[in-house]
Amino acid sequence: MNTSLDKLLAVLLFILGLLFLLSGNSSGGSTANLTPCRLSSVEEVKNCLLTNRRDATDFSSLLQGESVLIFGETYLSVDNRFELMAALPALKKLGFTRLALEAMPSSRQSLVNEYKQGRVPRQEIKAAIKSIWGHSPESYMQVIDAALDQGIEVVFLDRDYERVDLHADNWQELEKQARNRREKHWLNVLTRQLEQHPGARMLVLVGSDHISPQAATMPLQCRLRQSGIAAASIAIAGGGVFYDDVLTRAARQGRLERSKFFVRLAPIKGAWQGMDFYLHLPQTSEKRKIYSYSE
Fold first, then answer.
1. DSSP H helical ranges for the chain
2. Distance separating alpha carbons of residues 279 and 25, to the nearest angstrom
3. Cβ neighbours of residue 76 under 8 Å, at least 6 residues apart?
4. Which three-class secondary structure state does DSSP give residue 65?
5. In this structure, are residues 294 and 72 in contact, taking their beta carbons and an 8 Å threshold?
6. Exposure of 156 by Cβ count < 10 A (0-12 exposed, 13-18 middle, 19+ buried)?
7. What is the mean pLDDT for each group of 10 consecutive residues in the chain (295 residues)?
8. What's the CATH fold of domain 27-283?
9. What's the CA gap between 39 and 245, in Å, rounded?
10. What region does 145 belong to: left with phi over 0, alpha with psi -120 to 50, or beta?
């Protein structure tokens, strides 16, 4: 009798051990207990990715009640935007009802409002994106359409273009000042939206450089937090544009370049508090380099 019980106990322990191994750090589960990866050497980041990533792109596991979730994209990669589009139904269920886009200035908000009402043709708003923004206007139209289909309001975020004298001796400082004014405008737009719609949760799509710990000006998530608005940020990399930064090199060395996963990022000493998470998309093999925030 005892022998049978011992055998049964051994089988149960084996099954539990197997389940533990299968569920380990690299798949599913919450990101809350993930060890943050430091953007240091490629070898150190690789080792961190191998044991501290989540394959499942469950956004609910990233959030802790934040009012704003910022996605940092690379403008040349339409895959970044397609990833956001695919996530919109799940994000809507989490209470995100507004999407702010860097791609268009807030002064043109009436354009998207009238498009939603059927009073402006699709081609007109697409032509405006091409003229004002330039990057892949069709992909941004698809983001707008996908958001509206989900009942998510689209908010134009940007400031009207400000020309900087690149021939001036202090052109870098002038450019930094213009960027700072631009990002302050974003903060004002987002703050006003949250004030006008109490309890709303907002999605934001901006360039990854605007949430980077090494940005020239204060990252957007830091501006929001300083204003008392809870915000989380995710930098997206990979997809159709070849990256050559610490994280993507580490993924390639760890043979994770074809995987989609989240990792939590550790703050960089002496830098801004940067993005909270990194979403790695399967990398292309095309050797067209886009240097991103961890260079």
1. 2-23, 42-51, 78-93, 109-116, 122-132, 137-149, 171-196, 220-226, 246-253
2. 16
3. 135, 136, 241, 290
4. coil
5. no
6. buried
7. 57 45 44 76 93 79 90 90 94 96 98 97 97 94 98 97 86 90 97 96 96 88 95 88 84 92 81 78 67 36
8. Rossmann fold (3.40.50)
9. 10
10. alpha
Task: Give the Cα separation of 291 and 29 in Å (integer).
Answer: 31
Contacts with 19 (C-beta within 8 Å, 6 or more apart), sequence order: none
The distance from CA 29 to its chain's CA centroid, rounded to whole angstroms, is: 19
- Token code pair at residue 87: 């996530």
CA distance 212 to 184: 16
Q: Tell me how far apart the alpha carbons of residues 169 and 175 are, in angstroms, rounded to a whole number.
A: 12
Whole-prediction pTM: 0.85
Close Cβ partners of 294 (under 8 Å, ≥ 6 residues apart): 39, 245, 246, 247
- Which run of H or E residues covers position 234? strand 231-239
| Number of CB atoms found within 10 A of residue 236's CB | 23
Asked if residue 274 lies in contact with residue 219, where contact means CB atoms within 8 angstroms, the answer is: yes
Q: Are 78 and 284 in contact (CB under 8 A)?
A: no
Residue that has been written with the tokens 């044991």 in this structure: 51
CB atoms within 10 A of CB 138: 11
Q: 33-37 contacts: CB < 8 A, separation 24 or more? A: 34/263, 34/264, 35/264, 36/264, 36/265, 36/266, 36/267, 37/263, 37/264, 37/265, 37/266, 37/278
Q: Which amino acid is at 113?
A: N
